[in-house]
């Protein structure tokens, strides 16, 4: 196996851009499937499918807020860990990873509490109506419980990318997307859970991606080892 500790330092910039950017871009495109697939299935719900779709759409600012806090930690921590790697300070890189991991947990707990307590008020502020607020709160009440998995998946996956393991990072996204596509119809239609099923499928998929990511970062293959 190629030594990734030397890979990022020895390859030319052009090759690095090509080799690292393609899996990253593919991962971002696949990540969009979460929202797209949920909307497709929810829009085909019998009865109030259009209202349910509108209600879930109102949840997007809160979902983006969760993603933004994940980026807040990882966008600073992952590059810092890469700098330490370049300086051969692997212990410092690992400490940076650990600190960001702990901070992600703290932020996730705070966000979970905020979303569970004030999600209805926030959704009304973002434009939910009397006809759609029920669907929006049903979705967010379940999604909020999985905030930890979303945070850890989005935040910690950046540390895998920063080490040059973009294929592993891409696979972590694919795992979640494929599971979401498979679970959505089961929960939404098979178990008749509606928008709650879509939210449950999303957080279970994110949980599986999270397990994959944490398992890799705790293993011996990553560059901090």
If you had to describe this structure to a student in words, what would you say it looks like?
There is one protein chain. This protein is mainly α. The protein has one domain (18-40, 61-218). It is 84% helix and 0% strand. The protein is built from ten helices and no strands. Helix 2 packs parallel to helix 9 (166-190), helix 3 (33-43) packs antiparallel against helix 10 and helix 4 (49-58) crosses helix 7 (133-145). The two termini are 15 Å apart. 41% of the residues are buried. The model has no long low-confidence stretch (mean pLDDT 83).
E-strand count? 0
By secondary-structure content and strand pairing, the structural class works out as: mainly alpha
Global mean pLDDT = 83
Task: Summarize the biggest pleated sheet.
Answer: none
Q: Number of DSSP helices?
A: 10
Q: Extract low-pLDDT stretches.
A: none
> What letter string, H or E per element, gives the SSE order?
HHHHHHHHHH
Beta percentage is under 5%
Separation, N- and C-terminal Cα atoms: 15 Å
The helix content, as a percent range, equals over 70%
Number of domains: 1
Shape: elongated
